């Protein structure tokens, strides 16, 4: 039971991550599920649902169709809708029931593409992973299909891994772009919020890709393999821009880890030091941690409850699995712990005598704290 949750919620699931990543690109995203995944997505995870149209559909999988493996109904329904709506592509996302039944989504995608002449692909979700995986593989599928040659535009960049799940409404993303462009870099495309599929096709022109959250790592790897575009990992928040710009100029891969080594090498003292802990998505939280360390010269650690952390955390940071493990880490650090920065729903599992700083995260608490969402680009 160590990975169970009894007080805090879990993060947004992979299926919602796929829908969030592809929401604005003009394609049709189909969740193969009775209905549960769709209701969770549109009532909790998607802040654009009532303001901006998108072709996101649920298959309405019935028990008898699941038991009998009736894929023909799914194919027929998608083809009827696609012939009317003319989407730019079709994406199929799985949920727990078709996962258990072994539905062959790749084969269904090939049939749809052959019948309709529209690009179609499957995104191998099953509802058992978090949103980082879902957004990541959805953007990776787009990156695989980008065409063109690498004709580099100097001082240009793509922002990879941008969805409301991490960054909130469009004006917050605009602030990220503004930080980058004020530093003299031209943003060619934003994967994938506030942008179009046609703009994303310009990705090979970029001098460097900037992975602003862990959801963009898979796409960055594919674009590097296909076009040779280097990438840097870090979020363009105000207090971290100098470090990030240096890394972009030098093509250093994980900007905040380089900065952390420099700061800790300069300020390391004997004995234990006061500590601030940040809980959440690794790239954003590590960038914020670096900004805090730069400004206040205080020890900052990150606890990451998400699965994909390879190469993103430094020594002293902790990846946790489950509520109990998180509480154990916080208890272990409590002697010198001066503050915790996290989504408000983490407060019940944090030490009572420690100052708690609210940093709402849509992928964790949904739309509950929408009006309190910080503009990450303006922090520190």
UniProtKB/TrEMBL annotation:
Pfam families: Oxidored_nitro. GO terms for molecular function: oxidoreductase activity. Residues 28-237 form the Nitrogenase/oxidoreductase component domain. SUPFAM superfamilies: Helical backbone' metal receptor. This is Oxidoreductase. It comes from Dorea longicatena.
